[in-house]
Design brief:
By secondary structure, the chain is an all-alpha fold. The chain has one domain. About 85% of the residues lie in helices and about 0% in strands. The chain contains ten helices and no strands. α1 runs antiparallel to α6, α2 packs parallel to α4 and α3 packs parallel to α5. The protein is globular, with a radius of gyration of 19 Å. The chain starts with a helix and ends with a helix.
Amino acid sequence: MLSQAGPLFFTFFSILLINLVLSGDNAVVIALAVKTLPHRQRVRALMAGAGCAVVLRVTATFFAGRLLNVEFLKLIGGVTILWIAVKLFGEAAPSEAAAGAAPASFAKAIWFILLADITMSLDNILAIAQIAEGSLLLLVIGLGISIPFVLFASGLLATLMDKYPLIVYLGAALLGKVGAEMMLTDRFTTQRLSPGPLVTYTIEAIAAAGVLIAGKLLARRQVGELAVK
């Protein structure tokens, strides 16, 4: 009994640690998603989004071994992250123009949280799947305990974004970098194109800047539409 407790504890701790370390990007996108919500709805959105995310992650982990070997999966995921980053930055952009826009809806924030979480979690889902070795109990407990830490980080980031607008820019740029990184590490990209470090860093920088520019343009267009109405 004691001989089995050691490996089980190590496996559980590994799942918890991997999920915490690799969920930093998720905390950023969650913070951006809830930033434009009224303060009273932020906690509800964080809790609802996290609860659904746990279910999705546990389900996806069982299929991770097959899914992550499919070409274009991470390529599509990267494009999705770039789209989410532009949409969220367009709504949360700290500018006088964007300030006149209506706050995001609760359902919309939940949708962005779920879509971004499952898309950005492809790599750590694979890592956790390899460690858990099919144990549903370890998956649920490990992910369930780590989620509150991600929620705390997301809530703290959202509060800091209210006080320090520069964090919004940094968060959006980070998501742009993550989206480009996913696309460049897709099986198709690595096998057919094999981009070197210089090309990789250049594309990631362009994607980060592109998210900021596209988000600003989107914010201005939304304010223009509101002015017409």
